[in-house]
Design brief:
The structure is a single chain. Helix content is about 35%, strand content about 25%. The protein is an alpha+beta fold. Among the domains are: about 90 residues; about 100 residues, no CATH class; about 150 residues, no CATH class; about 240 residues, 2-Layer Sandwich (Nucleotidyltransferase, domain 5), CATH 3.30.420. It has a 7-stranded mixed sheet, sandwiched between helices. Strands 5, 7, 8, 11 and 12 form a 5-stranded mixed sheet that branches. Strands 23-36-37-25-38 form a 5-stranded antiparallel sheet, with helices on one face. The relative contact order is 0.08. The C terminus is likely disordered. It comes from Macrostomum lignano. This is DNA-directed DNA polymerase. InterPro entries: DNA-dir_DNA_pol_B, DNA-dir_DNA_pol_B_CS, DNA-dir_DNA_pol_B_mt/vir, DNA/RNA_pol_sf, DNA_pol_palm_dom_sf, RNaseH-like_sf.
């Protein structure tokens, strides 16, 4: 009978078996460990052996090289070329390290740190280590890892993953991954072995771009050349021309090549070296690229194939990554390369028939914005880092206010919604989620509360508007770590920023997606922040005043000393203040929109800036012909616009036009649309050419001091009345300006009694609405872009004769010319852009800077026909015409005339009705239109990328980048110039502004100012003390002359004394934008008018200008500026923080000659350009300057001229 074991015996047997198993397991591990140690020992021995071999080989090579050098030095039997060849062969045979060296030290990749985990470590330890490294600013990459995941704590089920890969750039990304692991696996039982790579989390290494071959950039062109050894195609589609040269009729058609060129996700429209292999595969061709560095053939598939011709990418353009594809003979490569080097000529482009005719019809959207609009405003305190932290935000629905704008303030205040941050909240995280996870009371900031509140509004798009949001409020959500989906940023600030509202309620999400199509993604609520300051560039207090808002609805005042610890206790101080901020801004915008809609049917919500608003209003007014015809039937006012309409539809009358059928109207609509249209040049080179003809306002200082005959008498009267202890005019006037109004009135009575009338003074003769005058003047001509043609050199003689006799107008053209200002000209029509050398004490070397100044001598420039003729009018002479664009036809009347005239008349009506709001808005619209027509083209795109994408895409096209939050960057990327453009896919319209109109607006504004200057002989004699874009500081004695010539009045194209009956009795005119004027008004009360670019008016005084005039430097302590960043928000410096600047007394000596004994500053006379090709300053030299980045973008500004370098 089988003996049964007792439970104790069974346990004992199991224990013995377990001990034996563990003993065997330990023996196995010891054996494996010894084997690993032996393998490591053998590996180290092999490594040491290889190292010894390399050292021996290096010693042998160095000894041999030294012997060769000694032989060369001592016997001189080997020629230099042979010697270098032998050394090169020896160095070539030497074993090189496997790691590839970087091309230059500036692009070196930072050293990476590797950690090898050999044993199976608990996964939790590895995760803790990774989190620590991420918090220290490192990116962690897991490579070649082996991971065993255990599903439960018993360890029965597990999952093993080999060759595991993962990369983490920030903690938030790691936590999202870690959260998934915790939900499924036990981290204490799971084990890990592999390699961890730590890299500094910085973007320091630019990727080398694939070499692009497209001919040249937009500035240059290349002459075609071919012989038996090489072929150099002309610029543009150079790769395709090379393929045609090799294969002839067998080459693919151009449209097939273009379709393939655009069939790429990352290199659309670009031909690069890396795409040649794919090109061969797609078209079944055999194109080989010869690499001039290693003398090999690329791609690899072409290395065993015989080629008669080889492609090379020749680099000789301003952009080092943009080359030019050429062909060389495979039999004579060396000769072919020399031929290409000798015959490759890059010259700068000129307008041609092809690029001038690249036009599109200009169009800008004029559809109203129907989003739900709220007015918002943040109240902030400063934390220990001086950063603005929001403790409250206010919201006010615009439509709700519009319905109750006439109610009492108490009733309107009920419409506001004030949301307050919880004390102790973390602005960088969502306190609601974090605190609930920890089981504590949630603490949420006001920004997220605002998003949650707006998430209950049944609207897909919500627009928030704040005053100065572009410089303040739009940065607050970014500071609170809320990620945007779109940012529009300019030097003005953040014009627009859009967020996806992740806090929207389920009911709102269902409402938004109720009409969603099947298989489409769910739409989300978006919130866009805009800035009202871009429409009214003034403080909110002044905005209320200009819009004549009710006194009981205007902004109130408050001492902004709220802190993190007392904002809840001091709610009674700021709560009502915030409410009235919302109400006053909403009232201003409501009034603004009423007037803007009356003018052009647009509102503030439809555009980002005031200039965009007035451009859209003008365009809508000009192209909507039928609306104009209907308006005529109501008013029967026959303008030039209506006369042109009648001419086109003749013999049909306007009254009968609307009785026609749609088919009958279509014929007339086509003619009207053709006449009342605006076209823009779209060729990139032509736009650059036109851009060079844009000349801004003129500012000049010609006589550095003025003192009236009565000034000393005034000083004596003031001194006697105020009993000042000194007779220094500077001290006396300063004491007067500090006295109260009662004292000033008493002094005024004495001055009036003693002086009677004051005629010996200066006036500020100001052009009435200068740019609107230029746009509506009957003598202003504007070209039609669709009639453009290229200037023919055979026309030069006739054109020169017409320009120099001032008979070229009203014809229009934009030409590159050489002209000369003789030494008899005192004030030139335009400044010249020159390059001068200046000594920099910091570097102790001469530096070349660009300088704009009015000078005499020869000048080469690109100008429109109006400016060219005005040069002759001011005393100059046109010497030569090089190239340009001529317009065959102009608009029969100014395209702006009707719009500007209506606005000007509307402003007069507003003034009669004492409607200050309407008058101010019309004035702003009048002065903003021209700026949009000369707006620079945007040459870059903006992106919001995570760190991984930025590192992948980081190359020379990245213009700039700025961090927003943990894993989001705002990136500006320069646009690539595409080699091939599919004409069928191109839109027939463009949003590129018509630059040709803007050029002529600016030119006609200078022509109108020249009417005033030439009337007083200001171009030949020193009659003008100082001049700005639309004003001249001249003596009152010229008033009668100007009046006699019809230049005085309040109408367009006329001028007036900006100081009324008063005048300037004393003035310092140190340099452009640096002047001081003491004004005696008609009531004999004195007032100072001062301008100092770069300094606040409260930081300078009479004494500052006197010090500069006396030849001494001044030191100015300006307030420290606010700092703005996406990641850090707004940083406000402590009260009293200043930045000190020292300004030199020799400011204007760079612009004009030193003053003579009468204070007159004469112009320089220099001949920078000569009409000889070999001369350094020839037309070729000028062309190179046009495309010099510093020459175009950096003007040696008065700020830098004034700064004295220590």
């Amino acid at each position: 009978m089988e003996q049964r074991l007792t439970p104790d015996q069974i346990r004992q047997l199991l224990a013995n078996e377990r001990q034996q198993f563990n003993r065997l397991q330990r023996q196995i591990e010891q054996i494996e460990q010894r084997q690993r140690q032996q393998r490591r020992q053998r590996a180290r021995e092999r490594q040491r052996e290889r190292q010894r071999e390399r050292e021996i080989q290096d010693q042998q090579i160095n000894a041999l090289a030294n012997n060769i050098r000694a032989e060369y030095e001592m016997k001189r039997l080997i020629e230099k070329a042979e010697y270098e060849k032998r050394i090169a062969e020896l160095e070539k045979n030497q074993k090189k390290p496997t790691r590839r060296k970087p091309r230059n030290k500036s692009d070196e990749k930072p050293l990476d740190e590797f950690i090898r985990v050999y044993r199976f470590e608990p996964m939790q330890n590895v995760l803790d280590f990774i989190e620590t490294q991420l918090s220290n600013g490192y990116a962690v990459e897991i490579t070649n890892a082996r991971v065993q995941y255990f599903y439960n704590k018993t360890g029965d089920d597990r999952e093993e993953i080999n060759q595991y890969l993962a990369t983490f750039y920030n903690i938030s990304q790691f936590q999202a991954w870690f959260k998934h692991l915790v939900e499924n696996y036990d981290m204490n039982l799971s084990v890990f072995s592999g390699r961890l790579k730590m890299t500094p989390n910085e973007i320091t290494l630019k990727h080398e771009r694939s070499k692009q071959g497209m001919g040249t950039n937009v500035m240059c062109e290349i002459a075609e050349y071919k012989d038996e050894y090489c072929y150099i195609p002309s610029d543009g589609n150079c790769f395709y021309k090379c393929v045609q040269f090799i294969y002839g009729d067998k080459a693919p058609r151009k449209d097939e090549y273009g379709a393939w060129l655009y069939d790429s996700r990352t290199q659309r429209g670009l031909m690069t070296n890396s795409r040649i292999g794919r090109f061969n595969e797609h078209f079944n061709l055999s194109i080989g690229l010869y690499n001039t560095k290693n003398r090999g053939i690329e791609p690899k598939s072409q290395r065993g194939i015989h080629h008669d011709w080889l492609l090379i990418n020749y680099f000789h353009t301003p952009d080092y990554h943009i080359g030019h594809y050429c062909l060389i003979s495979n039999k004579q490569r060396g000769i072919a390369l020399e031929r290409i080097k000798d015959n490759y000529k890059v010259v700068y482009k000129n307008p041609t028939l092809e690029n001038v005719k690249e036009l599109k019809m200009f169009n800008t959207p004029t559809n109203p914005n129907k989003s739900n609009v709220y007015i918002f405003d943040f109240e902030t305190y400063l934390n220990y880092n001086q950063q603005a932290c929001p403790y409250a935000v206010g919201l006010l629905n615009y439509n709700a206010f519009s319905n109750k704008c006439n109610e009492t303030p108490e009733q309107i205040k009920k419409l506001t919604k004030i949301l307050i941050s919880d004390r102790g909240c973390d602005f960088q995280t969502d306190g609601d989620k974090v605190d609930r996870a920890e089981g504590s009371q949630p603490k949420v900031d006001c920004v997220r509360k605002m998003f949650k509140y707006l998430g209950t509004v049944r609207s897909k798009k919500i627009v928030l508007i704040a005053h100065n949001s572009s410089r303040f409020d739009s940065y607050i959500p970014l500071f609170c770590n809320i990620k945007p989906i779109k940012i529009l940023k300019t030097p003005r600030g953040i014009l627009s920023i859009t967020f996806v509202n992740d806090y929207a309620s389920k009911e709102v999400s269902a409402f938004i997606n109720k009409d969603k199509k099947k298989n489409h993604k769910d739409s989300k609520q978006t919130i866009t922040m805009l800035c009202s300051y871009q429409h009214a560039s003034m403080s909110l207090k002044k905005f209320c005043s200009s819009m004549t808002i009710r006194e009981d609805l205007r902004k109130t005042s408050m001492v902004h000393d709220i802190t993190e610890h007392d904002y809840l206790e001091r709610m009674d101080e700021w709560y009502e203040y915030l409410q009235f901020d919302l109400i006053s801004l909403c009232a201003c915008i409501h009034k603004y929109n009423e007037i803007a809609y009356e003018i052009g049917g647009m509102t503030m919500f439809d555009t980002l800036t005031c200039s965009s608003l007035t451009l859209k209003c003008w365009f809508k007014d000009f192209v909507r012909v039928e609306d104009k015809m209907k308006q005529y039937l109501k008013t029967e006012e026959k303008t030039n616009y209506i006369k042109k309409v009648e001419e086109i539809i003749s013999p049909l009358k306007i009254e009968d036009y609307f009785d026609l059928s749609k088919l009958e109207k279509a014929k007339y609509q086509t003619l009207l649309r053709k006449e009342f249209s605006v076209h823009s040049h779209t060729n990139p080179y032509i736009r650059r050419f036109m851009r060079d003809a844009v000349k801004g306002g003129r500012v000049f200082a010609l006589i550095n001091k003025y003192e009236s005959d009565c000034f000393q008498t005034i000083v004596d009267v003031v001194k006697a009345h105020l009993k000042t202890p000194t007779s220094d005019p500077c001290e006396v006037i300063s004491s007067y300006l500090k006295s109260d109004m009662e004292e000033k009135k008493k002094i005024a009575i004495k001055l009036k009694k003693q002086l009677g009338t004051v005629s010996d003074c200066l006036m500020n003769f100001d052009g009435v609405s200068l740019y609107p005058s230029a746009m509506s003047d009957k003598d202003s001509e504007y070209p039609r872009a669709e009639t453009a043609r290229v200037f023919d050199i055979s026309e030069e003689k006739d054109f020169l004769a017409q320009f120099n006799s001032q008979t070229f107008r009203p014809k229009t053209a934009v030409l590159k010319i050489m002209y000369e200002n003789p030494n008899t000209v005192f004030l030139q029509h335009l400044p010249s852009k020159d390059k001068e050398k200046f000594y920099n004490p910091e570097t102790k070397a001469n530096e070349t800077k660009t300088l704009n100044r009015f000078r005499n001598g020869k000048v080469i420039d690109t100008l429109c026909s109006v400016d060219i003729q005005e040069i002759v009018r001011m005393g100059g002479k046109i010497l030569k015409i090089y190239s340009g664009i001529v317009y065959e036809k102009n608009y029969d009347f100014s395209p702006f005339q009707n719009y500007i005239t209506n606005l000007f008349e509307m402003r007069k009506v507003f003034k009669k009705e004492n409607n200050e709001a309407g008058s101010e808005l019309v004035k702003t619209l009048l002065n903003s239109l021209y700026g949009k027509t000369v707006q620079r083209d945007i040459t870059f795109t903006t992106h919001l990328w995570n760190l991984q994408t930025l590192k992948t895409e980081y190359d020379d096209t990245i213009k700039s980048y700025e961090k927003i939050c943990d894993d989001l960057y705002y990136v500006e990327k320069n646009k690539d110039t595409q080699e091939y453009v599919d004409e069928e896919e191109e839109s027939p319209i463009t949003s590129l502004c018509p630059a040709q109109l803007g050029i002529f607006i600016l030119a006609h504004s200078r022509r109108i100012m020249n009417n005033f200057i030439t009337s007083i002989e200001g171009s030949k004699t020193p009659e003008i003390y100082y001049g700005d874009t639309d004003s001249l500081y001249i003596h009152k004695k010229h008033w009668d002359t100007l009046n006699k010539n019809g230049h005085v009045g309040n109408n367009l194209s006329q001028g007036k004394n900006d100081y009324g009956e008063g005048g300037i009795i004393f003035g310092y005119f140190i340099a452009p934008k640096i002047k001081y004027c003491l004004l005696l008004k008609d009531d004999f009360i004195m007032e100072e008018k001062k301008t100092f670019k770069g300094c606040a008016n409260d930081k300078i005084n009479f004494a500052s200008f006197k010090t500069l005039y006396d030849g001494q430097s001044i030191k100015v302590n300006n307030n420290a500026p606010w700092k703005r960043s996406f990641e850090g928000g707004i940083t406000i410096p402590q009260s009293g923080s200043t930045i000190s600047k020292t300004y030199s007394s020799t400011i204007n000596t760079f612009k004009r000659e030193k003053p003579d004994k009468n204070g007159v500053m004469k112009p320089f006379f220099k001949n920078y350009f000569d009409d000889k090709p070999q001369h350094e300053q020839s037309i070729e030299y000028y062309n190179s300057l046009l495309f010099d980045v510093d020459y175009n973008c950096f003007e040696f500004d008065i700020d830098e001229l004034a700064l004295e370098k220590n």
